[in-house]
Amino acid sequence: MDLTIDVIADNKKSTVRLSGEIDAYTAPQLKEKLLPLTKTKGHQTVVDLKDVGYMDSTGLGIFISALKSTKENNSSIRLVNLQDRVSRVFNITGLDEVFTIDTVIQGGNE
User: Fold this and answer.
1) C-alpha to C-alpha distance for 95 and 83, rounded to whole angstroms
2) What is the pLDDT of residues 21-45, one digit of tens each?
3) pLDDT in tens, 82-99
4) CA distance 41 to 60
5) Is 32 helix (H, G, I), strand (E, B) or coil?
6) What does the UniProt keyword field contain (predicted)?
7) Which CATH architecture has domain 3-102?
């Protein structure tokens, strides 16, 4: 399965809506879209994973890189709407303690 990436951006905030699977095949396109958003000081990135049913360790690596970039660039990343299967990957690895993860996104472009 492929990965669809929709980015809704303004000056200080971006919402990244993902749909499909994040794996070794699709991770490079996610990295290409996500990492630049984390490199602007003060920028908030919200990643909506509602329509992602599968993610492997390659996907985790992309999110870890994005988180590291936010720390280096004084920006932020928040993950929302994780399906159980994807949420378990973060829980098992302990990354749920490192990332800001919200169950439900509030409003339209948050």
Assistant:
1) 15
2) 999 999 999 999 999 999 999 999 9
3) 999 999 999 999 999 999
4) 23
5) helix
6) Phosphoprotein
7) 2-Layer Sandwich (3.30)
